[in-house]
Design goal:
Helices cover 38% and strands 22% of the residues. The chain has 8 helices and 12 strands. Bound molecules: calcium ion (CA).
């Protein structure tokens, strides 16, 4: 399941490596290199993060201070601290500050991914994503969308972004979703703010469905956004 992740890490090479690995898993990652910017993003209304990976030693504000602030502000997302320190007392301080887990540097990227998966499962708000609605079923492992039609099941392979978009629609069937919300949940903040990436991606997804002979279940609701309305849900 794609996550919206905040990464606060001031070592550029490590940050770039982590970002690449997480993006390859289909996650959407915002990165910044100091604690104050991290806090601005974490506490802003622009994006709602599913998880944050915070380096301990950061300019401006430490990762531990970020954990404290996040918890004091009532944010309950999973927080993973990265630390070059190995002393037990430090670990306790981090956990006391509200971190859910920590990872000692250097670490293997596989271990980072495993910790993130574990944090996801442990989180009280976690539920297995139910990626099906009205005859549409998305398998996140393979990226295959299966659609029940009167003539039988149609399968199509979705690209990474198409999967994220489809997953979001399947989790919110029948709801009008503003383009701005899709944009803030599925694209990172550093992308050109004027380009209309959402409309372009919706168009691509519709075309792919049409190319397989399927009517598009994604409606455009003028000046309000998009609504996923699978054919079965449309009344006479
Ligand atoms: Ca650091």
């Amino acid at each position: 399941m794609p996550l919206r992740i905040l990464l606060v890490e001031d070592e550029p090479d490590l940050a770039a490596a982590i970002q690449t690995v997480l993006q390859r898993q289909g996650h959407v990652v915002d990165h910044c290199g100091d604690g104050l910017s991290g806090w601005m993003l974490l506490s802003s209304e622009l994006a709602r993060y599913d998880l944050a990976v915070l380096d301990w030693m950061l300019p401006e504000l430490s990762g531990v201070e970020l954990c404290r602030r996040a918890r004091a502000a009532g944010l309950d997302l999973p927080l993973l601290l990265l630390t070059a320190r190995a002393e037990t007392a430090d670990r306790v301080e981090g956990l006391d500050a509200g971190a859910d887990d920590y990872l000692s540097k250097p670490f293997a990227m596989e271990e980072l991914l495993a910790r993130i998966r574990a944090l996801q499962r442990r989180h009280p708000g976690y539920r297995e994503p139910l990626l099906c609605a009205g005859g549409y079923r998305l398998d996140p492992a393979s990226g295959t969308l299966r659609v029940a039609t009167p003539g039988g099941e149609v399968s199509l392979e979705l690209s990474g972004k198409e999967q994220q978009l489809m997953a979001y629609f399947l989790e919110h069937p029948g709801q009008i979703i503003p383009g701005s919300r899709l944009r803030s949940q599925l694209w990172d903040l550093h992308q050109d703010p004027v380009s209309n990436v959402v409309a372009a991606q919706v168009r691509l997804l519709r075309r792919k469905l049409e190319a397989h002979g399927l009517p598009s279940p994604i409606e455009t609701v003028p000046s309000r956004g998009y609504r996923f309305r699978p054919a079965e849900a449309v009344g006479p």
